[in-house]
Amino acid sequence: MSLYEVDIERTGRRRSVWRWFLLHPAADYLWAVLGVLLWLGIAMLARQPLMVEGADTDARRTLLQTLATLAGATAGLTLTSVSMLINVLGKKAAPGQRELPLERLSAAHRRQIGEVFLFAIPGLGLLVVAALVTIVLEGDAPTGLWIPEAVVFVLAFASVLALLRVAWALRRVLAIATA
Fold first, then answer.
1. Engineering a disulfide at 50: which of 3, 39, 146, 179 sits with its beta carbon 3.0 to 4.6 angstroms away?
2. Which superkingdom (predicted)?
């Protein structure tokens, strides 16, 4: 089997699970919700504060500001990568020269690569907004609000999974370009 007409030498069950992960980006939110529910369940069983609501006000604010900053910067980088990707995937060989490796990609494969990048951007944008809204809602209260914090962590976990997919797509494009 080959993805984007670049042979993958790995064999076995791991490849099919990885391929499923790559082709189903919407499942990121399901995995993220399951992760946060597990976190909440463990916190309830241990009779601990849910999420980070029990942390110091300044520590919570710093964490949320950091998440918002990282998400915004990563969304900008991903958007820049999309414009570079359009130039790379659209480049054609000069007349009389042999075809460039990226020219061999079908339209469907080009679309899949683009969708990987475009799927990550809205989640990162939502993470920025959710983190900033949570900062405003919590204000200077001594305890945080676990529901908006849970939304922020769901978006953060889903964004990490989407960025793993983006890194994979960049690696594939590099492998194809240098083939």
1. 146
2. Bacteria
What are 165-175's pLDDT values in tens digits?
Answer: 988 888 878 77
In the prediction, which pLDDT does 177 show? 74
Task: Please report the DSSP string for the chain in residue order.
Answer: -EETTEE----SHHHHHHHHHHH-TTHHHHHHHHHHHHHHHHHHHTT--STTTTS-HHHHHHHHHHHHHHHHHHHHHHHHHHHHHHHHHH--PPTTSPPPGGGGS-HHHHHHHHHHHHHHHHHHHHHHHHHHHHHHHHTT-SS--HHHHHHHHHHHHHHHHHHHHHHHHHHHHHHHHT-
133: β partners:
none
Angle at 118 between CA 129 and CA 29, to 5 degrees: 60
Q: How many CA atoms lie within 13 A of 134 on its CB side?
A: 31
Domain total in the chain: 1
41-62: average pLDDT: 91
CA 65-21-50 angle, to 5 degrees, is 40
- Residue 34: half-sphere exposure toward Cβ, Cα within 13 Å: 5
